[in-house]
Design brief:
It is a single chain. The protein has 17 helices and 23 strands. Helices cover about 35% and strands about 25% of the residues. Helix 9 crosses helix 10 (about 285-295) and helix 9 (about 250-265) packs across helix 16. The relative contact order is 0.11. The strands form six sheets. A seven-stranded antiparallel sheet has the order 3-2-4-1-10-9-11. The protein has a six-stranded antiparallel sheet with strand order 5-6-7-8-12-13. The protein has a four-stranded parallel sheet with strand order 17-20-21-22, with helices on both faces. The radius of gyration is 23 Å and the shape is globular. By secondary structure, the chain is an alpha+beta fold. The protein has two domains: about 10-225, Aminohydrolase, N-terminal nucleophile (Ntn) domain (Glutamine Phosphoribosylpyrophosphate, subunit 1, domain 1); about 255-440, Rossmann fold (3-Layer(aba) Sandwich). It binds iron/sulfur cluster. Iron/sulfur cluster (SF4) binds near residues 233, 385 and 447.
Length: about 450
C-alpha cells in the first residue's frame, strides 16, 4: 500500500423522491477517496444520520437505509474521521461533512477554547462546524471559513433549506455539480454523477457557495480567489480514471503523462523493450499512454485480486507487505524472458515498487525499466494527502535539501533510485514535462509536492 491517500470525499443530492439510495451509491462511487469511515445524513423535517467504520458497499444495513428518510441529504467517505456530524445550531439542525485538511488547526482550537468553546477530540470537522455555527447563518459561516482556515476544503452542509456546498478559494480539491430531470447533486468527483446517470453540469468555482434544493442550483456568494491551486496529484493519482476535474479528463491526463515518459525515452534514442505494463490500478492510464506513444505492446503483468480487502489498519511493514502480495499476483506467462517497461504514478518510500520489480524478476523478467508519471516527490503535502514526513520520501534520501534544478540532477537521482529498487532503469517526468502533459497552466496548479511552494502563502 502506498502512503499517499486522499482523506475524504463528499456527496450531496436533492431529489423529487427519497434520496438515500442515490446517496449510498454516490459515496460508494467515491470510496477510493477514503476507505475507513462512511456516513449518510438525510433531512426529513429533522436530520437522520448513520455513520460507520467500514466500507460503504457492505456496512450499511437495509434497516438503516430505510431509516434515512428524506428527499435531500449528504454523504461522506473518509480515511480519518467519521462524518457527517450533526449539530443543533442557531440556523436549526444541520449536518456537516468536508474533504481536505486544516493546516492551522491547533491555532484555531486554541483560539476557540480561549473563547469558551468545547471540543470533543479536536477533529477537523469540529473546527469547520464550529466556525460555521459561530456566524448568524450558513453562508456567513462558510465565508468565515475562507478567512480563518489555512488549508484546503470542500464542504457540504445539510439544512432545512437544502444543501450548501462550497469549495475553498484556491480550489485545491475538486467539487462538481450534476443534474437530471429529477435530481440535483454535488460530488467530490464527476464519476459519482456520471454513474448515477446524471449530467455533469459544471465545477463549483474556487470560493463559490452554492445552495442545492429542489429548485436547482443557486450561487449565493463568490468569494475573491487570489489564485487557483488545483491539486496536480488529483489527475496523476488520487481521482478515479473516469472522472473529469476542472474540465480535464483524468484518463486523458494520465495518457498524456505516460506519453510524455515514452517521448523522453524516444528522444534519448528509444528503449528496447518487449512490453509496457502497469502497476494496477494507479499505473494503468500512464502505461496505456506510454504504449500509445511508443508503439510497444501493452500487457498485464499483475493480476489484481479484487477480493483482497483490508479489514483493519495495517500498522507493521510486514503486514503491509503481505497485503500487497495478496493484492497483486504476477502473471508468470506474460513476464518470462521479457524486457518490461513498468509504469506507475509516483514513488513515495520506494518499498512497493521495489517489491514489484523483485517479483517480476523472480518470475523470469529479463529487464524491468520503471517509468514514473510524477516528478520525484520532494515535500510532504499540507492539504489532505498523507505523505507523512520528509524521512519517508525516498528522493529526499538522495537530495537532502533544495529542489532538482537540472536534467542532470534528475538523471543522477534516477540512477540512484534504480539501484535502490533493483530496476534496470528509472525515469520520471520532469516538473516541466509533467505540467506540460497535464495541459493546465502552472499558475493554476498546486505543485508543492515537487517545488515546495505553498500556494496559500
Ligand atoms: S502538496 Fe501535492 S498532494 Fe498536496 S495539494 Fe499540493 S500537489 Fe496536491
Amino acid at each position: 500500500m502506498k502512503s499517499l491517500q486522499d482523506n475524504c470525499g463528499v456527496f450531496g443530492l436533492c431529489s423529487r423522491t427519497e434520496c438515500v439510495h442515490d446517496i449510498f451509491q454516490g459515496i460508494d462511487f467515491l470510496q477510493h477517496r477514503g476507505q475507513e469511515y462512511c456516513g449518510i445524513s438525510t433531512f426529513d423535517g429533522g436530520i437522520h444520520q448513520v455513520s460507520h467504520y467500514g466500507k460503504v458497499a457492505n456496512i450499511f444495513k437495509y434497516e438503516e437505509l430505510e431509516y434515512l428518510k428524506g428527499r435531500w441529504g449528504i454523504g461522506h467517505v473518509s480515511l480519518w474521521e467519521r462524518q457527517p456530524v450533526r449539530w443543533q445550531s442557531r440556523a436549526g439542525e444541520i449536518a456537516v461533512a468536508f474533504s481536505g485538511n486544516i493546516i492551522n488547526a491547533d491555532e484555531l482550537i486554541k483560539d476557540m477554547k480561549g473563547r469558551g468553546k468545547a471540543f470533543y477530540k479536536g477533529y477537523n470537522i469540529e473546527i469547520i462546524s464550529k466556525i460555521i455555527m459561530e456566524e448568524p447563518d450558513v453562508v456567513a459561516g462558510i465565508c468565515a471559513l475562507s478567512r480563518k482556515i489555512k488549508g484546503a476544503y470542500c464542504v457540504v452542509v445539510l439544512t432545512a433549506d437544502g444543501i450548501y456546498a462550497a469549495r475553498d478559494i484556491y480550489g485545491f480539491r475538486p467539487l462538481i455539480l450534476g443534474q437530471d430531470s429529477n435530481r440535483y447533486a454535488v460530488s467530490s468527483e464527476s464519476r459519482a454523477i456520471q454513474n448515477l446517470e446524471m449530467d455533469v453540469v459544471r465545477d463549483v468555482q474556487p470560493g463559490e457557495i452554492v445552495l442545492i434544493n429542489d429548485k436547482g442550483f443557486r450561487t449565493l456568494a463568490r468569494l475573491d480567489s487570489p489564485r487557483r491551486a488545483h491539486c496536480a496529484f488529483e489527475w496523476a493519482y488520487t481521482a478515479s480514471l473516469d472522472s473529469i476535474i476542472d474540465g480535464v479528463s483524468v484518463q486523458e491526463a494520465r495518457n498524456q503523462l505516460g506519453g510524455s515518459l515514452a517521448q523522453r525515452d524516444m528522444d534519448g534514442g528509444g528503449l528496447e523493450a518487449d512490453i509496457v505494463a502497469a502497476v494496477p490500478m494507479s499505473g494503468i492510464g500512464h502505461a496505456l499512454g506510454y504504449h500509445q506513444r511508443s508503439g510497444i505492446s501493452y500487457q498485464e503483468v499483475f493480476l489484481y485480486n479484487r477480493y483482497a480487502d483490508r479489514s483493519y489498519t495495517l500498522s507493521s511493514q510486514k503486514a503491509r507487505e503481505k497485503m500487497a502480495k495478496r493484492k497483486l499476483a504476477v502473471l508468470h506467462y506474460a513476464v518470462r524472458g521479457k524486457r518490461i517497461v513498468l509504469c506507475d504514478d509516483s514513488i513515495v518510500r520506494g518499498t512497493q515498487i521495489h517489491y514489484k520489480v523483485r517479483d517480476l524478476k523472480k518470475a523470469g523478467a529479463k529487464e524491468v525499466h520503471v517509468r514514473i508519471a510524477c516528478p520525484p516527490l520532494m515535500y510532504p503535502c499540507d492539504y489532505g494527502i498523507s505523505t507523512r514526513s520528509y524521512e519517508e520520501l525516498s528522493a529526499r534520501h538522495y537530495f537532502k535539501t533544495g529542489n532538482i534544478a537540472s536534467m542532470e540532477q534528475l538523471r543522477d537521482l534516477e540512477a540512484w533510485i534504480a539501484n535502490q529498487i533493483g530496476a534496470d532503469s528509472v525515469k520520471y517526468n520532469s516538473l516541466d514535462s509533467f505540467v506540460r502533459a497535464l495541459g493546465i497552466s502552472r499558475e493554476e496548479l498546486c505543485l508543492k509536492c515537487w517545488d515546495g511552494v505553498n500556494p496559500t502563502l
